[in-house]
Write a structure and sequence with these properties.
Immunoglobulin-like; Neuraminidase; 2 domains; five-stranded antiparallel sheet; 2 helices
Length: about 425
């Protein structure tokens, strides 16, 4: 709704420090409520609205079909309608307020091509067009521009054969069409994510039976792939991904041995670079679940081998520390200025955010509310004009191509 005449936009101007994001922004793992269900690995995960969903998965005793909804605002889980069938180690994406899960393993060695759609409004599942290709487990998947993409995977034993195809799903037509797969070797157990309208696929085991550190970027306009810098550390599969609006952290994973890796690395597309962040402190995380909700991101569950086989239901949030708060910015921060005007804001007036004298260059901005939900985002050079916002606390972030960043908060009252 528009801002009323009596309402005012406070914190008109505030100074923020700026510099390399990695140097100024820390990360910390904070334990959240565990999944109140059987410990598991290989679950499907997707985000719709303000909630994250974890469905299916398995352990040494069973393959599951239960579905759980996580609320970050209350740190609670709620059981939702079961999937139509029990599956593990498939892939999922969300489009237009609905979640989709596809492929996976529903027995040994039975693989699936099924596609199921979850509607959170009716809390119900429906069957959609099956993938018109090999049944598989361990594919990657992501959604961009109203389409779902699913590719790769394994249609045999742990040694393959692996798959190198990519398929695009149109939810309006309920149909699949073949796209362009990742160049090079087929792979499975890769991690997929989306940053700023592009898809990324990292790691996995390739057809040479090596565990790769490669990172590939998918450009949806031309349906093409670009090889990016490889992730530090050893090659691995089934890692978790903690995706923020303009960066992501890859955590954990495993290779052919029995050791589960807990090291974690942050990838920043604007500098096309990686940097280490604190290790994942949970029980495993390998073949676990992970998702981002607004500016908050979570991960957990998974399987461990040493000293004995064990499955986990613990759940963690990767918290990105702010390099400046409102009070600090008013009192002690140095560097460029970020200004928010007007003050007061009349009914229906827009809000303008502008960079001060130290311009860090063209980049991306995002505005999120107190719940961490992104309400606005886009490109910014020196000035951006926002529509009127409802009352509440907001966080604004600016990232440029060189890795510099501004962070701060403002209030609409």
């Amino acid at each position: 709704m528009p801002i009323r005449h009596a309402e005012k936009l406070f914190i008109v101007a505030f100074l923020l420090t700026w510099g390399d994001v990695a140097a100024q922004t820390g990360y910390d793992w904070v334990q959240r409520a565990s999944l109140p269900a059987a410990a598991r690995y290989g679950s499907f995960n997707f985000v719709v609205g303000d909630y994250g969903y974890v469905a299916g998965g398995g352990n040494s005793n069973a393959i599951f079909l239960d579905c759980w909804r996580y609320s970050p605002s209350t740190d609670t889980w709620e059981q939702m309608a079961d999937m139509p069938t029990a599956l593990r180690h498939g892939a999922a994406f969300a489009i237009n307020g609905k979640g989709y899960v596809s492929c996976g393993q529903n027995g040994s060695p039975t693989f699936s091509t099924a596609l199921y759609c979850y509607d959170p409004v009716s809390d119900s599942w429906s069957t959609k067009a099956s993938l018109p290709a090999y049944a598989r487990y361990g594919p990657y998947a992501f959604a961009i521009g109203g389409y779902g993409y699913l590719g790769g995977g394994n249609r045999g034993s742990a040694e393959g054969p692996y798959l190198d195809d990519l398929w695009q799903y149109d939810p309006i037509l309920d149909s699949w069409s073949e796209s362009t797969g990742i160049p090079g070797l087929a792979r499975y157990g890769s991690t997929a994510l989306v940053i700023d309208g592009k898809g990324y696929v990292q790691g996995g085991r390739d057809q040479s039976l090596d565990f790769t550190t490669e990172l590939w970027e998918f450009e949806p306009t031309g349906q093409s792939w670009n090889l990016k810098p490889s992730m530090p550390g050893v090659g691995r599969s089934w890692s978790m991904v903690m995706a923020f609006p303009y960066e992501a952290v890859i955590a954990g994973g495993k290779d052919s041995g029995t050791v589960i890796y807990h090291d974690s690395y942050r990838y920043y597309p604007y500098t096309d670079s990686w940097v280490g962040v604190p290790d994942y402190p949970g029980g495993s995380g390998w073949s676990g679940t992970s998702f981002g909700i607004g500016t908050r991101t979570f991960g957990g569950l998974g399987k461990e081998y040493v000293p004995t086989e064990q499955f986990f239901n613990d759940f963690w949030e990767l918290v990105k520390g702010e390099n400046v708060s409102v009070d600090e910015s008013l009192g002690s921060a140095t560097g460029g200025a970020l200004r928010v005007v007007p003050n007061p804001a009349a009914s229906g007036q827009s809000i303008q955010i502008s960079l001060g004298s130290l311009s860090p260059g063209t980049g991306r901005f995002s505005v999120s509310d107190a719940m961490g939900r992104t309400v606005l985002q886009g490109t910014m050079s020196r000035v951006v004009t926002l529509p009127s916002l409802t009352s509440g606390s907001y966080q604004v972030r600016f990232y440029n191509e060189g890795g510099s960043a501004f962070h701060g908060r403002f209030m609409v009252e």
